[in-house]
């Protein structure tokens, strides 16, 4: 018999209650479960997290990738509407990468849902300030995903450093029994961090987008040389030499507490920049 196309499909669960029942079965059977939460439009950055999940789950454990464009973390309706949703391609990729289950719910919220996760320290500045309500949405959906998938470990990308810090904090503060693992940022040849939003850049914008990584390089050199006067202003100026670039913020902060600090070795720098209409973020330790 010639195998039908379903032979190549990764097991997909769409119903949240069915996901939870499956997760409870895994728990009873003592399976280790590693979850990679995503909003789909998978790229090399996401793919790099899958072997980390496999390592955490073990060869016989279960690797779950969740794909859900979470409406509550978008503060701009158009951004939510236009977010890429190539579900079939994502599932194919998950199959090729040895993922055991894709959890792809259509919706995760009751119409009258009235409970949220409200973290009040690490989620305040930077993305929390520029995107009001964003981290409430992220914290809430991640706790929901943890309650549905019951993962032993969950893997997030370093590119969203503030998000990763928030999730670590929520997991600690609410005693969630999930180990949080952070995978390093994956970059294109010119240093641009892989992101689902990069598909929105036209050719010229794509070239200009390298300015974020170049700014991190400039900051590292300035810290190395002790040439710190007006550093933030100089970085903004150098980024905005690109005609399509408009800086939202450049910040230096303590990576544990997320408090602003002076630029120095060991501090982390984060930045958000509009390249045309596309908002990109990046960060790295100096
Ligand atoms: O990083 C993302 O893709 C999302 O913020 C996450 C963690 C999957 C929550 O929706």
Instruction: Give the low-confidence spans.
Output: none
The third-level CATH topology of the largest domain is Rossmann fold
Alpha-beta classification: alpha/beta
Q: How is the main sheet built?
A: 6 strands, parallel
Order of helices and strands: EHEHEHHEHHEHEHHHEEE
* Small molecules bound: pantoate
Number of strands: 9
Short description:
About 40% of the residues are buried.
Description:
By secondary structure, the protein is an alpha/beta fold. The protein folds into two domains: 5-183, Rossmann fold; 196-285, Pantoate-beta-alanine ligase, C-terminal domain (Pantoate--beta-alanine Ligase, Chain: A,domain 2). 37% of the residues lie in helices and 19% in strands. It contains ten helices and nine strands. The strands form two sheets. Strands 1-4-3-2-5-6 form a six-stranded parallel beta sheet, with helices on both faces. The chain has a three-stranded antiparallel beta sheet with strand order 7-8-9. Strand 2, helix 2 and strand 3 (62-67) form a beta-alpha-beta unit. Helix 9 (211-225) runs antiparallel to helix 10 (231-239). The longest helix is centred in the middle third of the chain and has 16 residues, at 134-149. The radius of gyration is 20 Å and the shape is globular. The termini are far apart. The structure holds pantoate (PAF). Pantoate binds next to strand 2 and helix 6. Pantoate (PAF) binds at residues 37-39, 70, 73, 138, 141-142, 160, 163.
């Amino acid at each position: 018999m010639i195998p039908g196309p379903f032979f190549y499909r990764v097991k997909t669960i769409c119903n949240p209650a069915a996901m939870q029942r499956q997760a409870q079965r895994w728990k009873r059977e003592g399976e280790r479960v590693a979850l990679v939460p995503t909003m789909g439009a998978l790229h090399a950055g996401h793919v790099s997290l899958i072997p980390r999940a496999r390592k955490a789950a073990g060869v016989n454990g279960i690797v779950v990738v969740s794909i859900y464009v979470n409406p509550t973390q978008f503060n701009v309706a158009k951004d939510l509407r236009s977010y890429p949703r190539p579900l079939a391609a994502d599932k194919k990729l998950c199959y090729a990468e040895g993922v055991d289950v894709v959890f792809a719910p259509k919706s995760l919220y009751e119409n009258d849902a009235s409970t949220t996760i409200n973290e009040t320290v690490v989620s305040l500045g930077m993305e929390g300030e520029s995107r009001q309500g964003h981290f409430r949405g992220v914290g809430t959906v991640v706790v929901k995903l943890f309650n549905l998938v019951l993962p032993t470990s969950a893997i997030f990308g370093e590119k969203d450093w503030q998000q990763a810090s928030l999730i670590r904090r929520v997991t600690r503060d609410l005693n969630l029994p999930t180990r949080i693992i952070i995978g390093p940022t994956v970059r294109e040849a010119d240093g641009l961090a892989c992101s689902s939003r990069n598909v929105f850049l036209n050719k010229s914008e794509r070239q200009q987008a390298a300015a974020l990584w170049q700014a991190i390089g400039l900051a590292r050199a300035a810290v190395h040389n002790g040439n710190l006067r007006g550093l933030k202003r100089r970085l903004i100026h150098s980024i905005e030499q690109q005609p399509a670039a408009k800086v939202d913020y450049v910040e230096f902060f303590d990576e544990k507490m997320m408090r602003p600090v002076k630029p120095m070795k060991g501090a982390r720098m984060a930045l958000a920049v509009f390249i045309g209409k596309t908002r990109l973020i990046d960060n790295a330790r100096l």
